[in-house]
Amino acid sequence: MSRDIQKKNLLRQSKTALLSMIGVLVLGVQNLNAQSAAPGANACAPATAPATTPADRGATPIFPAGQYPVKLPTMSLLGAPNNLPNPYGTGVDWGQLPAGRPWGGSASVVTGPDGTIWVADRCGHSGTAGGESCTGASAGIDPLIQLDTSGKVLKMLGAGLFVSPHKMQVDKEGNIWVADNSGNQVFKLDKNGKVLMTLGKKGVAGAGNDEFDQPTDIAFGANGDFFVSDGHDGGGMSTGNARIMKFDKNGKFLMSWGKKGMGPGEFDMPHALAMDQEGRLYVADRQNNRIQVFDQNGKFIKQMFQFGRPSGIYIDKNDILYSADSESRDGRTNIGRGGMGTAGYGFNAGAARGIRIGSVKDGKVKYFIPNNCPYPYNTASELAEGVTTDAQGNVYGADFRGDVRKFAKQ
Is the overall model pTM greater than 0.85, yes or no? Predict the structure, then answer.
Protein backbone atom coordinates (compact mmCIF):
# COMPACT_ATOMS: atom_id res chain seq x y z
CA MET A 1 0.00 0.00 0.00
CA SER A 2 1.44 3.41 -0.99
CA ARG A 3 2.17 6.06 1.59
CA ASP A 4 -0.44 8.37 0.00
CA ILE A 5 -3.18 5.74 0.34
CA GLN A 6 -2.18 5.10 3.95
CA LYS A 7 -2.47 8.83 4.66
CA LYS A 8 -5.92 8.96 3.04
CA ASN A 9 -7.10 5.99 5.10
CA LEU A 10 -5.80 7.54 8.30
CA LEU A 11 -7.53 10.84 7.47
CA ARG A 12 -10.78 9.00 6.69
CA GLN A 13 -10.60 7.07 9.97
CA SER A 14 -9.82 10.24 11.91
CA LYS A 15 -12.74 12.06 10.30
CA THR A 16 -15.10 9.19 11.09
CA ALA A 17 -13.93 9.11 14.70
CA LEU A 18 -14.31 12.87 15.02
CA LEU A 19 -17.84 12.82 13.60
CA SER A 20 -18.72 9.99 15.95
CA MET A 21 -17.41 11.99 18.92
CA ILE A 22 -19.40 15.05 17.82
CA GLY A 23 -22.52 12.90 17.52
CA VAL A 24 -22.02 11.55 21.02
CA LEU A 25 -21.50 15.06 22.39
CA VAL A 26 -24.59 16.41 20.62
CA LEU A 27 -26.67 13.46 21.78
CA GLY A 28 -25.38 13.97 25.31
CA VAL A 29 -26.41 17.64 25.27
CA GLN A 30 -29.82 16.72 23.84
CA ASN A 31 -30.34 14.12 26.52
CA LEU A 32 -29.20 16.54 29.23
CA ASN A 33 -31.65 19.14 27.98
CA ALA A 34 -34.44 16.59 27.53
CA GLN A 35 -34.14 15.54 31.17
CA SER A 36 -35.57 18.91 32.21
CA ALA A 37 -38.83 18.55 30.26
CA ALA A 38 -41.75 17.20 32.28
CA PRO A 39 -43.16 13.81 31.22
CA GLY A 40 -45.71 14.37 28.47
CA ALA A 41 -44.58 17.94 27.75
CA ASN A 42 -44.12 17.10 24.07
CA ALA A 43 -47.16 14.85 23.68
CA CYS A 44 -49.91 16.01 21.33
CA ALA A 45 -52.76 14.27 23.17
CA PRO A 46 -53.65 13.47 26.77
CA ALA A 47 -51.95 10.39 28.20
CA THR A 48 -55.32 8.63 28.24
CA ALA A 49 -58.10 9.70 25.91
CA PRO A 50 -61.61 9.66 27.36
CA ALA A 51 -63.47 6.44 26.78
CA THR A 52 -66.44 6.68 24.42
CA THR A 53 -69.15 4.37 23.18
CA PRO A 54 -71.30 4.58 20.02
CA ALA A 55 -74.19 5.70 22.23
CA ASP A 56 -72.16 8.51 23.79
CA ARG A 57 -73.45 11.80 22.36
CA GLY A 58 -70.05 13.37 23.01
CA ALA A 59 -68.19 10.79 20.95
CA THR A 60 -66.47 11.85 17.73
CA PRO A 61 -64.55 9.87 15.09
CA ILE A 62 -60.80 9.42 15.42
CA PHE A 63 -58.87 9.91 12.16
CA PRO A 64 -55.40 8.60 11.24
CA ALA A 65 -52.54 11.09 11.47
CA GLY A 66 -52.68 13.66 8.70
CA GLN A 67 -56.20 12.69 7.59
CA TYR A 68 -58.36 14.97 9.73
CA PRO A 69 -60.92 16.35 7.23
CA VAL A 70 -61.06 19.93 8.53
CA LYS A 71 -58.06 22.19 7.86
CA LEU A 72 -57.11 25.57 9.26
CA PRO A 73 -57.43 28.53 6.85
CA THR A 74 -54.47 30.71 5.92
CA MET A 75 -55.92 33.40 8.19
CA SER A 76 -58.19 33.12 11.24
CA LEU A 77 -61.66 34.60 11.29
CA LEU A 78 -60.27 37.53 13.34
CA GLY A 79 -57.35 38.11 10.97
CA ALA A 80 -54.43 36.22 12.53
CA PRO A 81 -52.20 34.75 9.78
CA ASN A 82 -51.29 31.05 9.95
CA ASN A 83 -48.94 30.53 6.99
CA LEU A 84 -46.07 33.02 7.33
CA PRO A 85 -42.36 32.18 7.00
CA ASN A 86 -40.58 30.66 10.01
CA PRO A 87 -36.92 31.74 10.24
CA TYR A 88 -36.31 29.63 13.36
CA GLY A 89 -35.32 26.04 13.92
CA THR A 90 -37.51 23.46 15.59
CA GLY A 91 -37.92 24.15 19.29
CA VAL A 92 -35.63 22.02 21.44
CA ASP A 93 -36.02 21.23 25.13
CA TRP A 94 -33.78 23.70 26.94
CA GLY A 95 -32.38 24.15 30.42
CA GLN A 96 -30.00 21.88 32.35
CA LEU A 97 -31.83 21.65 35.65
CA PRO A 98 -30.49 19.58 38.55
CA ALA A 99 -31.12 15.85 38.43
CA GLY A 100 -34.67 15.01 39.46
CA ARG A 101 -35.90 18.61 38.98
CA PRO A 102 -38.06 18.82 35.83
CA TRP A 103 -39.57 22.00 34.53
CA GLY A 104 -42.94 22.71 36.07
CA GLY A 105 -45.76 24.37 34.22
CA SER A 106 -44.67 27.87 33.25
CA ALA A 107 -46.18 31.00 31.78
CA SER A 108 -43.03 33.08 32.10
CA VAL A 109 -39.61 33.32 30.49
CA VAL A 110 -37.87 36.74 30.44
CA THR A 111 -34.52 38.28 29.54
CA GLY A 112 -32.60 40.15 32.23
CA PRO A 113 -30.61 43.36 31.62
CA ASP A 114 -27.40 41.28 31.66
CA GLY A 115 -28.66 39.04 28.85
CA THR A 116 -29.37 36.02 31.05
CA ILE A 117 -32.68 34.17 30.88
CA TRP A 118 -35.04 33.87 33.84
CA VAL A 119 -37.90 31.39 34.16
CA ALA A 120 -40.66 31.20 36.75
CA ASP A 121 -42.25 27.77 37.00
CA ARG A 122 -44.74 26.12 39.35
CA CYS A 123 -42.15 24.33 41.47
CA GLY A 124 -41.81 21.34 39.15
CA HIS A 125 -45.56 20.71 38.81
CA SER A 126 -46.63 20.59 35.17
CA GLY A 127 -50.00 21.22 33.58
CA THR A 128 -51.38 23.27 36.44
CA ALA A 129 -52.59 26.86 36.37
CA GLY A 130 -52.87 28.37 39.81
CA GLY A 131 -53.60 26.01 42.67
CA GLU A 132 -51.06 25.70 45.45
CA SER A 133 -48.16 24.23 43.48
CA CYS A 134 -45.41 25.89 45.56
CA THR A 135 -46.79 25.17 49.03
CA GLY A 136 -46.80 22.14 51.33
CA ALA A 137 -44.25 19.55 50.30
CA SER A 138 -43.12 21.83 47.45
CA ALA A 139 -42.41 24.87 49.65
CA GLY A 140 -38.72 24.04 49.64
CA ILE A 141 -38.44 24.15 45.83
CA ASP A 142 -37.06 27.29 44.14
CA PRO A 143 -39.43 28.40 41.34
CA LEU A 144 -37.29 31.28 39.98
CA ILE A 145 -34.38 30.10 37.85
CA GLN A 146 -31.65 32.13 36.13
CA LEU A 147 -29.80 30.49 33.22
CA ASP A 148 -27.26 31.51 30.63
CA THR A 149 -28.25 31.15 26.97
CA SER A 150 -26.66 27.69 26.78
CA GLY A 151 -29.14 26.49 29.41
CA LYS A 152 -26.70 26.31 32.32
CA VAL A 153 -28.32 27.17 35.64
CA LEU A 154 -26.76 30.20 37.33
CA LYS A 155 -29.12 30.71 40.24
CA MET A 156 -32.29 29.27 41.77
CA LEU A 157 -34.30 31.13 44.40
CA GLY A 158 -37.75 31.94 45.78
CA ALA A 159 -38.53 28.80 47.79
CA GLY A 160 -41.35 29.33 50.29
CA LEU A 161 -42.36 32.79 49.03
CA PHE A 162 -45.17 32.03 46.62
CA VAL A 163 -48.34 29.99 46.33
CA SER A 164 -48.12 29.66 42.52
CA PRO A 165 -46.05 32.17 40.52
CA HIS A 166 -47.53 33.21 37.17
CA LYS A 167 -45.45 35.83 35.35
CA MET A 168 -42.16 37.39 36.39
CA GLN A 169 -40.19 40.40 35.13
CA VAL A 170 -36.69 41.72 35.75
CA ASP A 171 -36.30 45.51 35.84
CA LYS A 172 -33.33 47.54 34.58
CA GLU A 173 -31.66 47.39 38.02
CA GLY A 174 -31.88 43.59 38.03
CA ASN A 175 -34.67 43.40 40.61
CA ILE A 176 -37.08 40.50 40.20
CA TRP A 177 -40.85 41.03 40.17
CA VAL A 178 -43.34 38.17 40.48
CA ALA A 179 -47.12 38.03 40.10
CA ASP A 180 -48.31 35.23 42.39
CA ASN A 181 -51.79 34.72 41.01
CA SER A 182 -52.94 32.06 43.47
CA GLY A 183 -51.51 34.02 46.42
CA ASN A 184 -53.11 37.28 45.16
CA GLN A 185 -49.84 39.14 45.67
CA VAL A 186 -47.10 40.91 43.74
CA PHE A 187 -43.48 40.75 44.96
CA LYS A 188 -40.35 42.75 44.28
CA LEU A 189 -37.10 40.93 45.14
CA ASP A 190 -33.48 41.91 44.80
CA LYS A 191 -31.23 39.80 42.58
CA ASN A 192 -30.48 37.45 45.47
CA GLY A 193 -34.12 36.87 46.40
CA LYS A 194 -34.47 39.31 49.32
CA VAL A 195 -38.03 40.66 49.47
CA LEU A 196 -38.07 44.43 48.88
CA MET A 197 -41.80 45.01 48.42
CA THR A 198 -45.03 43.04 48.76
CA LEU A 199 -48.43 44.18 47.48
CA GLY A 200 -51.79 42.50 48.05
CA LYS A 201 -53.12 40.29 50.81
CA LYS A 202 -52.02 36.68 50.78
CA GLY A 203 -54.90 34.37 49.98
CA VAL A 204 -57.44 37.20 49.86
CA ALA A 205 -59.11 38.04 46.54
CA GLY A 206 -60.64 41.47 46.28
CA ALA A 207 -61.30 44.54 44.17
CA GLY A 208 -59.84 47.17 46.52
CA ASN A 209 -56.86 49.33 45.67
CA ASP A 210 -54.72 47.21 47.98
CA GLU A 211 -56.06 43.87 46.75
CA PHE A 212 -55.78 41.61 43.73
CA ASP A 213 -57.85 38.79 42.28
CA GLN A 214 -55.21 36.61 40.64
CA PRO A 215 -52.68 39.16 39.30
CA THR A 216 -50.92 38.00 36.15
CA ASP A 217 -48.01 40.27 35.09
CA ILE A 218 -46.01 43.46 35.67
CA ALA A 219 -44.65 46.16 33.33
CA PHE A 220 -42.48 49.20 34.03
CA GLY A 221 -42.60 52.85 33.02
CA ALA A 222 -39.37 54.77 32.45
CA ASN A 223 -39.95 56.86 35.60
CA GLY A 224 -40.29 53.83 37.88
CA ASP A 225 -44.07 53.59 37.86
CA PHE A 226 -45.24 50.05 37.33
CA PHE A 227 -48.39 48.36 36.09
CA VAL A 228 -50.09 45.14 37.20
CA SER A 229 -52.63 43.19 35.15
CA ASP A 230 -55.23 41.83 37.56
CA GLY A 231 -57.80 39.17 36.76
CA HIS A 232 -56.82 35.62 35.82
CA ASP A 233 -60.01 34.41 37.46
CA GLY A 234 -63.29 33.95 35.60
CA GLY A 235 -62.19 33.87 31.95
CA GLY A 236 -65.26 33.84 29.71
CA MET A 237 -67.55 34.44 32.69
CA SER A 238 -68.94 37.40 34.62
CA THR A 239 -66.82 36.95 37.76
CA GLY A 240 -63.33 38.14 38.67
CA ASN A 241 -61.38 41.36 38.28
CA ALA A 242 -60.47 42.64 34.82
CA ARG A 243 -58.31 45.71 35.23
CA ILE A 244 -54.89 47.31 34.96
CA MET A 245 -53.52 48.86 38.16
CA LYS A 246 -50.84 51.57 38.23
CA PHE A 247 -48.45 52.18 41.15
CA ASP A 248 -45.55 54.55 41.74
CA LYS A 249 -42.04 53.19 42.27
CA ASN A 250 -42.66 52.86 46.02
CA GLY A 251 -45.83 50.81 45.57
CA LYS A 252 -48.32 53.63 46.16
CA PHE A 253 -51.55 53.04 44.25
CA LEU A 254 -52.12 55.69 41.57
CA MET A 255 -55.03 54.55 39.41
CA SER A 256 -56.71 51.64 37.67
CA TRP A 257 -58.82 51.13 34.58
CA GLY A 258 -60.88 48.44 32.92
CA LYS A 259 -63.77 46.13 33.72
CA LYS A 260 -65.06 42.78 32.53
CA GLY A 261 -66.24 43.08 28.93
CA MET A 262 -65.37 43.07 25.25
CA GLY A 263 -65.31 46.76 24.34
CA PRO A 264 -62.26 49.05 24.06
CA GLY A 265 -60.68 49.38 27.50
CA GLU A 266 -62.54 46.34 28.82
CA PHE A 267 -60.86 43.01 29.52
CA ASP A 268 -61.50 39.32 29.92
CA MET A 269 -58.46 37.74 31.57
CA PRO A 270 -55.66 40.31 31.02
CA HIS A 271 -52.87 37.74 30.95
CA ALA A 272 -49.61 39.55 30.11
CA LEU A 273 -48.09 43.03 29.71
CA ALA A 274 -45.36 44.65 27.63
CA MET A 275 -44.08 48.18 27.02
CA ASP A 276 -42.80 49.51 23.67
CA GLN A 277 -39.99 52.02 23.16
CA GLU A 278 -42.46 54.93 23.13
CA GLY A 279 -43.85 53.96 26.53
CA ARG A 280 -47.16 52.53 25.33
CA LEU A 281 -48.59 49.68 27.37
CA TYR A 282 -49.64 46.47 25.59
CA VAL A 283 -52.17 44.21 27.31
CA ALA A 284 -52.67 40.58 26.28
CA ASP A 285 -56.45 40.46 26.60
CA ARG A 286 -56.50 36.71 26.23
CA GLN A 287 -60.13 35.62 26.41
CA ASN A 288 -60.99 38.43 23.99
CA ASN A 289 -58.34 37.11 21.55
CA ARG A 290 -56.64 40.47 21.18
CA ILE A 291 -53.91 42.83 22.32
CA GLN A 292 -55.02 46.26 23.52
CA VAL A 293 -52.68 49.28 23.55
CA PHE A 294 -52.90 52.21 26.00
CA ASP A 295 -50.95 55.21 27.11
CA GLN A 296 -49.73 55.15 30.70
CA ASN A 297 -52.83 56.95 31.94
CA GLY A 298 -55.16 54.29 30.58
CA LYS A 299 -56.20 56.06 27.37
CA PHE A 300 -57.15 53.49 24.75
CA ILE A 301 -55.07 53.72 21.57
CA LYS A 302 -55.90 50.63 19.50
CA GLN A 303 -56.58 46.91 19.53
CA MET A 304 -54.91 44.16 17.48
CA PHE A 305 -56.37 40.76 16.60
CA GLN A 306 -53.70 39.79 14.06
CA PHE A 307 -51.31 38.44 16.73
CA GLY A 308 -53.70 35.64 17.76
CA ARG A 309 -54.88 34.70 21.23
CA PRO A 310 -52.07 36.08 23.42
CA SER A 311 -50.94 34.10 26.44
CA GLY A 312 -47.58 35.89 26.53
CA ILE A 313 -46.19 38.98 24.82
CA TYR A 314 -42.70 40.46 24.60
CA ILE A 315 -41.43 43.59 22.81
CA ASP A 316 -37.70 43.87 22.10
CA LYS A 317 -35.56 47.01 21.85
CA ASN A 318 -36.39 47.30 18.13
CA ASP A 319 -40.13 47.31 18.84
CA ILE A 320 -40.63 43.81 17.48
CA LEU A 321 -43.58 42.12 19.17
CA TYR A 322 -43.57 38.40 19.95
CA SER A 323 -47.02 37.01 20.79
CA ALA A 324 -47.37 33.44 22.09
CA ASP A 325 -50.72 31.83 21.27
CA SER A 326 -50.94 28.64 23.33
CA GLU A 327 -54.70 28.18 23.58
CA SER A 328 -56.62 28.96 20.36
CA ARG A 329 -59.11 26.22 19.61
CA ASP A 330 -62.56 25.63 18.18
CA GLY A 331 -63.73 22.57 20.10
CA ARG A 332 -62.55 19.96 17.60
CA THR A 333 -60.15 17.24 18.76
CA ASN A 334 -58.97 13.93 17.38
CA ILE A 335 -59.20 11.85 20.56
CA GLY A 336 -62.82 10.72 20.31
CA ARG A 337 -64.45 13.59 22.17
CA GLY A 338 -64.89 17.32 21.66
CA GLY A 339 -62.72 19.67 23.69
CA MET A 340 -64.57 22.94 24.22
CA GLY A 341 -64.49 24.07 27.83
CA THR A 342 -67.11 25.93 29.82
CA ALA A 343 -68.18 29.37 28.58
CA GLY A 344 -66.43 28.71 25.27
CA TYR A 345 -63.08 29.31 26.93
CA GLY A 346 -60.26 29.39 24.37
CA PHE A 347 -62.54 29.71 21.33
CA ASN A 348 -60.72 31.45 18.49
CA ALA A 349 -61.95 29.99 15.22
CA GLY A 350 -59.37 29.34 12.52
CA ALA A 351 -56.30 30.42 14.51
CA ALA A 352 -53.24 28.19 14.60
CA ARG A 353 -51.33 27.96 17.84
CA GLY A 354 -47.80 29.33 17.75
CA ILE A 355 -45.69 32.48 18.13
CA ARG A 356 -46.48 35.42 15.83
CA ILE A 357 -43.80 38.05 15.28
CA GLY A 358 -44.10 41.54 13.83
CA SER A 359 -43.38 45.22 14.32
CA VAL A 360 -45.53 47.35 16.60
CA LYS A 361 -44.79 50.29 14.31
CA ASP A 362 -46.93 49.05 11.42
CA GLY A 363 -48.75 46.19 13.17
CA LYS A 364 -47.87 43.69 10.44
CA VAL A 365 -47.19 40.10 11.45
CA LYS A 366 -44.13 38.97 9.51
CA TYR A 367 -43.14 35.55 10.90
CA PHE A 368 -44.85 32.60 12.57
CA ILE A 369 -43.34 29.81 14.68
CA PRO A 370 -45.96 27.04 14.44
CA ASN A 371 -47.09 24.81 17.26
CA ASN A 372 -45.36 21.43 17.47
CA CYS A 373 -48.73 19.62 17.54
CA PRO A 374 -51.06 19.45 14.53
CA TYR A 375 -54.60 20.75 14.28
CA PRO A 376 -57.05 19.85 15.77
CA TYR A 377 -55.63 20.58 19.20
CA ASN A 378 -56.19 17.94 21.85
CA THR A 379 -54.79 19.72 24.91
CA ALA A 380 -55.73 22.94 26.70
CA SER A 381 -52.40 24.70 26.12
CA GLU A 382 -49.28 23.97 24.07
CA LEU A 383 -45.87 25.33 23.01
CA ALA A 384 -45.58 28.64 24.86
CA GLU A 385 -47.43 30.81 27.37
CA GLY A 386 -44.36 32.99 27.90
CA VAL A 387 -41.93 34.24 25.27
CA THR A 388 -38.65 36.19 25.07
CA THR A 389 -35.49 36.48 22.96
CA ASP A 390 -31.76 36.70 23.58
CA ALA A 391 -29.14 39.04 22.10
CA GLN A 392 -28.58 36.66 19.17
CA GLY A 393 -32.26 36.74 18.22
CA ASN A 394 -33.08 33.21 19.42
CA VAL A 395 -36.60 32.77 20.80
CA TYR A 396 -37.52 31.03 24.07
CA GLY A 397 -40.97 29.71 24.93
CA ALA A 398 -42.23 28.65 28.38
CA ASP A 399 -44.81 25.85 28.24
CA PHE A 400 -47.75 25.32 30.61
CA ARG A 401 -47.18 21.57 30.28
CA GLY A 402 -43.72 21.70 31.83
CA ASP A 403 -40.98 22.70 29.42
CA VAL A 404 -38.91 25.60 28.12
CA ARG A 405 -37.91 25.44 24.45
CA LYS A 406 -35.31 27.34 22.48
CA PHE A 407 -35.93 28.23 18.83
CA ALA A 408 -32.59 29.02 17.19
CA LYS A 409 -32.60 31.79 14.61
CA GLN A 410 -31.55 30.40 11.24
Answer: yes
